[in-house]
Amino acid sequence: MPDPAPGPLHLVQSLANTLSADPQTDLLSTREEAAAWLRAAGLLAAEAGLSNSEHAALLRLRESVRDVLAAHAGGRDDAEATARLTKALAEGRLVVIVDPDSTVRLASAARSSYPGIVAAFAVAIADSAAGGTWLHL
């Protein structure tokens, strides 16, 4: 298992590592397993679950993350993979929130749980890119 990624990138690394080279090791293979993993990661409320379409979207998000990370590791650009990741992350419906104390943060504008999950990954990627670690995972 690779060393843990720093800061917010650890969440992205954790998602990528839910699938191993061993085909028998897929922590997101069913809706129930995916929901359990998301709950353990603190991304899904105990009473919430995933629909079939949300589960399929989560798998697409993971695959696009893995493809982009493989491109990073290979020192190459992959426009198709980055386009798929951009599309998957758009489901997070991010907005900029300015709090009364003028603290600025990104958050999901959606009211359902799945876009909030996607937003958490999008924010982690944005934060790691701002911190200079995104290209090093």
Helix content: 40-55%
Low-confidence stretches: none
What is the C-alpha radius of gyration, as a whole number of Å?
15 Å
Helix and strand string, N-terminal first?
HHHHEEH
Shape verdict: globular
Q: Quickly count the domains.
A: 1
Strand residues, percent = 5-15%
What does this entry look like structurally?
This protein has 137 residues and is mainly alpha-helical. The chain has one domain. The protein contains five helices and two strands. The chain has helices spanning 9-16, 31-40, 52-73, 79-90, 113-130, and strands at residues 94-98, 104-108. It has a two-stranded antiparallel ribbon. A hairpin with a 5-residue loop joins strand 1 and strand 2. Helix 1 packs across helix 5. The longest helix is centred in the middle third of the chain and has 22 residues, at 52-73. It is globular and about 50 Å long. The model has no long low-confidence stretch (mean pLDDT 91).
Sequence-ordered SSE layout with sheet pairings:
Elements: H1 9-16, H2 31-40, H3 52-73, H4 79-90, E1 94-98, E2 104-108, H5 113-130
Antiparallel strand pairs: 1-2
Tag the structure with descriptive keywords.
about 140 residues, mainly alpha, two-stranded antiparallel ribbon, about 50% helix
Question: Short summary of the structure?
Answer:
By secondary structure, the protein is mostly helical. The protein is built from five helices and two strands.
